[in-house]
Each structure stands twice: as structure tokens, then as C-alpha cells.
Amino acid sequence: MPVYKAPLKDMRFVLHELYDSTAIAELPGNADFTPELIDSVLEEAAKISEEVLFPLNQVGDREGCTYENGVVRTPTGYREAYRTFCEGGWTSISADPDYGGQGMPLTAAMMVEEMFCSANVAFGLYPGLSHGAYVALKHSGSEEQKKAWLPNIVSGKWTGTMCLTEPHCGTDLGMLRTKAVPNDDGTYSITGNKIFISAGEHDLAENIVHLVLARLPDAPAGVKGISMFLVPKFLPREDGTLGPRNGMQCTAIEHKMGLNGSATCAMSFDGATGWLVGEPNKGLAAMFKMMNTERLSVGIQGLGIAEVAYQNAVAYARERIQGRSLTGTKAPEKQADPILVHPDVRRMLLTSRAYIEGCRALAGWVARELEILEKSDDGDAKQAADDFASLMTPVVKAMFTDLGFEIASLAVQTYGGHGYIRDHGIEQYVRDARIAMLYEGTNGIQALDLVGRKLPQDGGRLLTRFLDPVLEFIDAHQDNDALAEFLPALSQALEHVQEATGLIMEGAMTNRDEVGAASVDYLRLFGLASLAFVWARMVAVAAPKAGEDGEAAQFYRAKVQTAKFFMERLLPQTGALLAAIRSGAATMMEFEDAAF
Amino acid sequence: MPVYKAPLKDMRFVLHELYDSTAIAELPGNADFTPELIDSVLEEAAKISEEVLFPLNQVGDREGCTYENGVVRTPTGYREAYRTFCEGGWTSISADPDYGGQGMPLTAAMMVEEMFCSANVAFGLYPGLSHGAYVALKHSGSEEQKKAWLPNIVSGKWTGTMCLTEPHCGTDLGMLRTKAVPNDDGTYSITGNKIFISAGEHDLAENIVHLVLARLPDAPAGVKGISMFLVPKFLPREDGTLGPRNGMQCTAIEHKMGLNGSATCAMSFDGATGWLVGEPNKGLAAMFKMMNTERLSVGIQGLGIAEVAYQNAVAYARERIQGRSLTGTKAPEKQADPILVHPDVRRMLLTSRAYIEGCRALAGWVARELEILEKSDDGDAKQAADDFASLMTPVVKAMFTDLGFEIASLAVQTYGGHGYIRDHGIEQYVRDARIAMLYEGTNGIQALDLVGRKLPQDGGRLLTRFLDPVLEFIDAHQDNDALAEFLPALSQALEHVQEATGLIMEGAMTNRDEVGAASVDYLRLFGLASLAFVWARMVAVAAPKAGEDGEAAQFYRAKVQTAKFFMERLLPQTGALLAAIRSGAATMMEFEDAAF
User: Fold this and answer.
1) Domain for residue B74, yes or no?
2) Is B412 close to A421, i.e. CB distance below 8 A?
3) Where are the alpha helices (DSSP H) in B141-213?
4) Are residues A227 and A120 in the same domain?
5) For helices A379-415 and A427-434, what crossing angle results, to 10°?
6) A469 and A557 inside one domain
7) CA torsion angle A473 A479 A485 A488 (round to 10)
8) Counted domains in chain B
9) Is A515 on the interface with B (CB under 8 A)?
10) Among residues A453, A133, A520, which one has the least CA distance to residue A293?
11) Does the beta carbon of B413 lie under 8 angstroms from any beta carbon of chain A?
12) Pfam families, from UniProt (chains A, B) (predicted)?
């Protein structure tokens, strides 16, 4: 049976040691969130993750959701777990206190989210989607709408969804057909078919609030004619009780590669009553507010699955005995050595570890900037934070989910043939991880967002929010012996980013296909450079503490050693990626269509 | 629904144009196998693959095998398909005519095998395992045993298995516990438990011939005390009819990530009657004869799945419309352009194509050498062929299966969210492909075999069987304009191989862990260099024909363009792999065990 223990030590390291947590506590509204309080929240989150959510992860995969006549049932135990989840206040931790939230800093909330994703990513989607709906509604809804709908979403009494995709359009929402016709009373009548609606129907909550993209009768064609509507499953009465069922139903759930505990619904809206959220024809922008939150969350899914897969691979590598060390017997009392002695097993584990801890540190940085954006009253700081988070959102989404899949697959590899057997629970991580590379915009779309939109935006200002701190860091640590072996590798990765950026921007002036041709390789190159930077920062913090005795020092030594592994064995990929980018669009565009 | 058309044109290119097929036809016993005959066999193989095996691929995944009281039932349609398969002579194509085989060259047989793997890899395991048993028995059995058992295996009337793995040992067979006690009549009584036995029990054939590894009472400990026994499900009578049931049963089948149509059995032997095959205590060597055949077959599974996944990705990319080309509308008559216009979609397709066609060409080379080894009467040629096949077996097994999984995942990515839905049949390829990286020796074990065994063997002679032809080719084509842009990349990849080889061999003299630390990266580096060489050879053949008009020329132009894509975008990975190898074992071995 799989195991999971929340990596609290590493999370605390990122929150309190790597970054300056006092600066976060000094933001308006954060005075109560002392390091001690945050630590105790993390411990509680660990408890519910390990004890309530994790034990349901395999059950959910095995049973999946069931569909019958429009009714969707979640797997055994989900209802009780969801109740416990809501009672513990986990649906509301980072939400605005004005609507019943706890206003916790996003830095801590992101760590909590990682635990939920490790423990049970399929379950986590239900509150996860609700949070996305909360964000969109909070940003674009009227005061009246917010008062009417947000408290029940924040408390978890009701859940939320985002209804974008239609059978013929996913990436290209300009083609969407769902219609919204105004009624006399100010509401709208919504008609159309949506697919791939996570948590579109289920038995966890008494009501479901759908945010639906649709077209008004006079809407312009394409993405400029899309509006957002709030369409609840049940129409609430004035007194807050639930009224009649709205004109929609779930017509099927998908049978998927994984994520079986999450209901992926086909929804049919047939004159359902809805309310316009925000301005007419501005629905896509409103939905993107939600989408950006979701994209970061999806990145955290990749990280969370990677963490739990890694933990199980370590446990198996310690326990499984097979063969002897190439350098001589290590466990003479046993019939064979634990496979942890084999260099290649350690390579797989350290690869996983180096990516996971790097991603967690990078996520921590993004969360800090989002927290500043949300709560700071310093305009310049907010702008810088917004720039940085915008730049990094596609990187977190795409790189973390690519790595989540790769690391889950490495865990299977560590298990050997046993990894392929369902009972062990490891192959589930590969299947569950695979979706994150696809939904909320495929990873190819993320890369286009990074290269085609974020890099050129505002004259390249967004990228400087990353480059400047790296250059400052390199400069500040020129005489730091602890970093002597790391800075050249970091500098070279940075040069690769700069050269690739220049090449693409120049190429794109004459041929826009150069953007698409380079995008995925660029995103990984940029992501690796970002990881190199956070690894160097972690070394700067850990190295001075690594020389002491005791278990605490072991943690810091492991940090420095993992950084070394990352720099020496993984970071060199930037060179190959740069070479691929240099080759440009020609090799892929000149190939004749008919020859594929 | 998925599609599959056997890539006959490319197969013929490899068989007849890339390599010299007359040399194969001139080998003893091959006179009948004219290019025309081989082409017609390929066409027939395409027909049964496309029309009989492929339509059962999704059914087999959905239904899986069922187990009840020791009886295993294969999915709907498998029995009929197996009958058709046997009647068509497909179980016997490459087998020795002395035992009812058709003696077809392995060069053609490997292409046929690829088609079966594309069409239905789970089904293909049943005859695949039989073929492995055929090879082992033919190599190590007595004349009497061969006459008694081989004809029914060759005809497909009976099937075969290899029973190695036990619950506590897979890689490390030295620990195996199954016992063989001599009976008075010269037979042995076999007792023990085996797991992961593909085709261990099923309803396709009237009898199953198990080749079981077990220990004699006085056997030395470890791998030097393992013997091989033939243990049939039913004991045949003198007259050839089936006698009593033997003392064994299937106690369970595994529920797996994929490959559901293939029964993976736990087998319990309880005093079953068996016959010693080959000499006592030499069972592992005998089994390795089978294992090497199986390892190549598993590599071909990776290639076969990659091919069918790629074909479906292409079909979807042509048909799915979404968004517009970055360089302006390409299909103005449609609401959006087919996604094939997007550079990143083309990157995914060309990456797949470049690996697939490269692997097919490399497999063709290995098959030639195996055919020479099997049929030539020239001792030097046989030795050279044996060396080359030994060197390449782990590369084919590991690299092809790694790539099979990667390419199946790229196909899912091309499909976007739809790729995650079971009905589309694409995610099945990811699940089915994953096992090939694990069984018949994990890919980590393959890499150790390459670096720890094959490289140092006979003073490094095996590697020269690859290096020499590459150096000769580079030398011979110095003035060939068609190759001018390809030779520098090939030369550099070769230098990377040479540098890495030197580093590892030198490091291994003082620290054996250097072998394990470098092995997986080395295998990929070596594999990429091998693909670079076959791509250069393909260019040498295709370039002169690429300039003409018509569809034929398009095929050759596509070859040259794909070669360019491979060299520019994929081959640069060798630099990153070399850098990782250079860093040595220290970063992974110094990491403290307790810190994982």
C-alpha cells in the first residue's frame, strides 16, 4: 500500500528560511499569521491529507464515479471526507474574510494545496474548482452577486465549476456556440452543450454554481463575443433555501485514463436561468482570472503527485532487496542489498528530488508575489508581483506537470514490474498525472503563452522580473565560497535563456512560426534556469548550516548535495534545448503536409 | 476510433533500399525468399494486423482477461483471432523448417512482428512468448525433446512461456527458490511459486509448455545453481494425444496498468512433472538465449506502439480544427485551421517520426546481423554479427521502449483533453507501452548490461562493430554533398560516445559505481548516435531520389527532411548526456541514505 507523509520540514524551509516570511506577515491583513500559526495550519493540513484524503485515493481510482439518469455518485468515502474537509475550514483558508474566508497568505495556502494534491488529486478537484469559481466571481461579480453566492462557495456548502469547453472547441474558445438569451427579468436563458466539466455534477454538496461562457444574441464573432454567466444547479429562493431545479443536466461522465474519483461531466443547458457576471462580451477576460489561478493549481497537482510518487519510490528502494552493490556487499545480513545501493536507482530518486524541491521553492516564490499582489498597498511592488506571476504561471503549469508525469513514471521504474500492478498504487500516479499536461490549456498552449505573449509584453519587462534578481544574486555572491561551484552553471543557464530569447524575438519579426517552433523547448529551458536559480538560493541558505552535527545539519547537507546533482546532471539539458531552438522553424514547417 | 495502416512503404525502404537485400537472399536456405515473396508476406501480415488483430485491441483493453478457479479466459474475439493467426502460419514464419517452420529471414520477420505489436500488443504476447520458448528449446533441448515439443509450438497448437520471476526475486534470479527433485523415471518433480508469467494460463491453445527455472537438490547457491525444466500443462501421451493434467495451476491474474488482453499469471507448481532442458545448473544461460530474443521483441513492441500512436496523432492533427496558423489563415473555408498548421504540433509529430523511422532502420540492421548469425557459414561474419547483435540488444530493448512510451504520450498530447478519454483509444497506448520499460529486465538493467558487460567484453571488440562502420561511412562520404550538413553532427555524436566510453571505462577501474552511475545516460547517448548513423545512411540512399517529381520523390524528400529534424533538434541531447556522465558517481553516491 502506498505511503504519504507531508513534507513539512521542506515546506517550512521554503516558507521561513529560503524566503523572508516576516515581509509576508507585514502585509496588510496578515498580522495574525505568525510563523507559529502557519506551522500549526500546515500540521493540521498534513493530518487531514494523510488520514482522511490519502486513504481514499486508491478507492476512488478503483470505483470511479458512477452515472445514472443525470445523477453522479462519487466513490465510497468521498461524501464523508468532503464534510470533514468543509468542517475543518479547508475550503476557505485563503478566501476573503468578507465572505467567510480566513484570509491566509497564499504562500501557506499553496503548501496546503500541494498536500491535498499528493494525498488525493481527484478529490482535490472538487474544492479546487470551487476556489476557481470563487476567484472569478470575486473579481468580476457585482457586490450583490458576491454577497449572494460567495459565502456558500467559501464554506463549501455549494461548489463551483467553470464551463468553457464544447465538443468542437477547447483551445479555440472563439468557436463556442452556447447561447444566452435575455429574459424580461434581467436574467438570461442559457442553451448549449459543454464537455469536460470537472465537478459538473456530484453528490458532495447541495448546490453547484456553474460559471458558463456563452454568447449573447448580438455578440460579435470570435472571442470578443463571449460573456460569462452564473448558472446554479438549483435556483435559490430569497430566504436562502433552495428553490426549483434549473434547466440543465449532466448527460454523461467520461471514462478516463485516470483521475477516476473526479466526475468529468458532459453538461446540457436547455434554457437554464443564468445571471450575467461582469460586462457583456468580456467573459473571456473574467474567466482568465479564474484560469490563471487554476493553472497554478494544476502546476501544484504535478508537484503534489511527484512528491507522493517519490516518497513511495524511496520506501520501496529501502525495502526491496535485489542483487548486490557493484562495489561490494552492503547488507551482508540479508540475501541481497536494498536496491537503494544501486547508482541508477539513486539517479532516479535524486532526479525526482531535485525537481520536486526546486519546484516547491519556485512555487513558494510565485506564491509570495501573488500574496504581495493581493494584499500590498505599494503600487510598484504590486506591478512587479503581477509581472512575475504572469511570467511564471505558464512555467509552473507546464513544467511542473511535465515533471509530475516524468517523476511518477520514474517511481514506477523504481518498482520494476511491480510498479505496473494496480494493487501497489504506483501506476495510478502516472495515470492521474497525465491529465495535468492537458487541461486548463495544454502545455503547448502554456509555452505559446510564455513565448508569444509574456515575453514581448510591455517591451520585455516581465522577463526582467526574473533576470534582474538572478543577476543581482550572482553579483552579490561572487565571493561566497559556498556558491563557487554553482554560480558558473547558473550563469551559463541564464546566458542560454538570454540567447534563446533574443533569437526567438528576432526570428518572430519576420516569421511568427518561430514563436511556436521554439516555445516548448524555450519553456523548459527557462524553467530549468529558474530551478537553477532557486537551487542556488537554497544553497546560499543551507550551506552555512550544513557543516554542523545532528539531524538538522543532515537536512542542509542534503540540500547542498541535491543542488549539486541538479546542476551537474540535469541543468546541462539547457544546452541541448538551446541547440534545438537555434535550428528554428524551418525543419518543421518545410515538411510537406501530405508526407506525414 | 483509432486507425492503423501498416507502414509497408517504409518497411520496404529499409529492407530493400537501405540495406542490401540480395546479400540476405544469398545466405544458405534463403534462396526462395526473393524480394517479391517477402513483399507479399508483408502485405499479408498487414492484412491480418489491420483486419483481425487491430479491431480487438480496444476490446481486449476494456474486457481484460478473467480468472475463475484456475481458468483464464481471454477477451472476446481472441480465440477466433488466434485460430486465424495459426492457420495463416504466422506462428511459424521464422522457425526452422525441420520443425514445421517457414525459415523466413529475420529481417522480414521483424517487420511482421512490428505490425503485430502496432495492431495489438497484448494479443501478440501469446505467440511472442511461444516463439521465445521455441528459441530456448531449439538451442538447449535434446534432439528428442525438440522433435517431441517444437512442432506443436511452431504450429501454434501449443503455446509456451518462460517462468523466471518469483515474488521475492525478479532481477536477481540468484535468489530463486523453486525446487526440482529427480524422479525415478528421469523426470523431475517441480515445486514453487512463480509470478508475472505472461500467457501462463489461457484458453487459446490446448496445451501450454512452461520453461521453468528451478534448483536441483544439490545445486550451488546463486545463479550457478539454476536449471531449466520443461513443464507442460497437460502431459502428452506416447500417441501425441493429451494425457492427464500436470501438477500446477494458475492461482491469480494481475490487474495491471495496461496490456489487459494479456494474462499475467501467478503460477503454483506443486510437484509438477518436468524434464530437464540442457545441462544441470546451466539453466540461466539457456534461458538467456530466449531472453535475448525476447528483449529484441520487447524493443519492437516499443516501436510498434510508437508507430500506431503516431499514425493516430497525424490523423487527429489533420482533422481537428482549432485556432489559426500564426502566419495567417490556412483553411479559410473552415472555421479554424487544422492543428497540423501549428509548429508545436508538427514538432511532436516529427519527433515521433524521426525516432520511429530511425528505430525501424536500426532494427533492420540488427535483424540482418541476426540472420547472418543464424544462417551464414562464414565464421568471421557470424562472429561479427553476434558481437553486433549482443551490443545492440540492450539498446533496442531500452531505447525503443523508452521512446515508445514517450511517443505514445506525445500522441495523447496532440489529442489534447480528448487524448485522456478512454473511448478515443489513445491513452491505451501509453498504458500498454509502459510495461515494456520494465519486463525482460528493466531498462536500467539493460543499461548495465550494455555498459558493464558488453562494452568491456573481449577488450572492447563489440563496440568496434558499431564504431568501424560509422567511421568508414564518414570517410566514404566526405565528398558527398547530400551528406555535407549531416556528417559533422554524426561525427560529434560519435565523439561523444567515444569520450563517454573512455571516461566510464577509466572510472570503473577505481570505482565500479561509475558504471551504474553512467549507464542509463550512456545507453541513450549511444542509442542517439546509432540513430544518427542510420539517418545519415538513409539520407545517402534517399537524397539522390528526392529531387524528382511525383509521390515517390515526396517519400525521399520526407526522409531527408526528417533526418534534418533529427540531427538539428534531437541529436543535440548527446551533449547534455555527456555532461551528465562527466559528473560521475559522486553526486549520487555521497548523498546520505537516511536523507532520502
Assistant:
1) yes
2) no
3) 143-155
4) no
5) 140
6) yes
7) 50
8) 3
9) yes
10) A133
11) yes
12) Acyl-CoA_dh_1, Acyl-CoA_dh_C, Acyl-CoA_dh_M, Acyl-CoA_dh_N
* Chain A (289-328) residues lying within 8 Å, Cβ to Cβ, of chain B: 314, 317-318, 321-323, 325-327
Which among A419, A558, A569 is the nearest to B580, CB-wise?
A569
Structural domain range at position A536: 459-587
Are B138 and B196 part of one and the same domain? no
**Chain A CA closest to residue B429:** A257
| Interchain CB contacts (distance < 8 Å): A and B | 271
% of residues, chain B, pLDDT over 90: 96
3-state secondary structure (DSSP) of residue A183: coil
Which of the two residues, B285 and B438, has the higher pLDDT score? B438
| pLDDT over 90 (residue B552) | no
Are B575 and A572 in contact (CB < 8 Å)?
yes
Evaluate whether residue A79 is within a structural domain.
yes
Which residues from chain A sit within 8 angstroms of residue B511, using beta carbons? Answer: 327
Residue B440 backbone dihedrals phi, psi, to 5 degrees: 55, 40
**What is the band of A23 on the pLDDT scale with cuts at 50, 70, 90?**
confident
Sign of CA dihedral B481, B485, B486, B487: positive
C-alpha cell at B309: 500512436
Q: Which member of B327, B448, B572 has the closest CB to residue A513?
A: B327
Chain A residues within 8 A of B594 when measuring between CB atoms:
554
Do B465 and B581 lie in one domain? The reply is yes
Cell of A163: 464551463
Choosing from B80, B109, B143, the residue where a domain stops is B143
Q: Assign B305 to helix, strand or coil.
A: helix
Instruction: Give the integer Cα–Cα distance in Å for B486 and B535.
Output: 9
Residue B15: all three cell numbers together:
529492407
Q: How far is Cα A69 from Cα A250, in angstroms, rounded to an integer? A: 8
Angle (nearest 5°) at CA A303 between A298 and A308: 125
pLDDT in tens, B67-79: 999 999 999 999 9
How far does the CA of residue B449 sit from the closest CA of chain A (Å)? 13
Contact A191, A159 (CB under 8 A): no
Residues A163 and A70 in one domain: no
Please report whether residue B50 resides in a domain: yes
Instruction: Please tell me which of the candidates A335, A340, A520 has its beta carbon nearest to residue B175.
Output: A335
How far is A209 from A228, CA to CA, in rounded Å?
12
Residue in this structure with the C-alpha cell 491583513, named with its chain if needed: A29
Give the cell for residue B97.
Answer: 523448417
Based on the residue annotation, tell me whether B143 is a catalytic residue of this protein. Answer: no
Terminal C-alpha separation, chain A: 45
A455 and B CB contact within 8 Å: no
User: What residues pair up with A230 in beta bridges, in sequence order?
Assistant: A211, A275
Rounded CA-CA distance A337/A198 in Å is 45
Q: Supply B580's cell numbers.
A: 551528465
Kindly give, in sequence order, each residue whose CB lies less than 8 Å from that of residue A185, ignoring residues fewer than 6 positions away: none
**Using one digit for the tens of pLDDT, what is the confidence trace for A202-215?**
999 999 999 999 99
Q: For residue B424, is pLDDT > 90?
A: yes
Cell matching residue B495? 565523439
Query: In sequence order, which residues have a C-beta less than 8 Å from that of residue B278 and are 6 or more positions away?
Result: B140, B141, B227, B228, B285, B286
Does residue B175 share a domain with residue B125? no
Task: List the catalytic residue out of B51, B440, B485, B514.
Answer: B440
Cβ partners under 8 Å of residue A409, min gap 6: A430, B405, B434
CA-angle at B68, arms to B65 and B70, nearest 5°: 100
Share above pLDDT 70 across residues of chain B, in percent, rounded to a whole number: 100
User: Do B114 and B164 belong together in one domain?
Assistant: no
Helices and strands counted in chain B (H then E):
18, 11
Section A178-201 average pLDDT: 98
Give the residue carrying C-alpha cell 444547479.
A233
On the question of pLDDT at A68 being above 90, the answer is yes
- B364 located within any domain: no
Domain with B76 in it: what CATH number?
A: 1.10.540.10
Task: Let me know whether A175 and A99 are in one domain.
Answer: no
Name the domain boundary from A116, A143, A170. A143
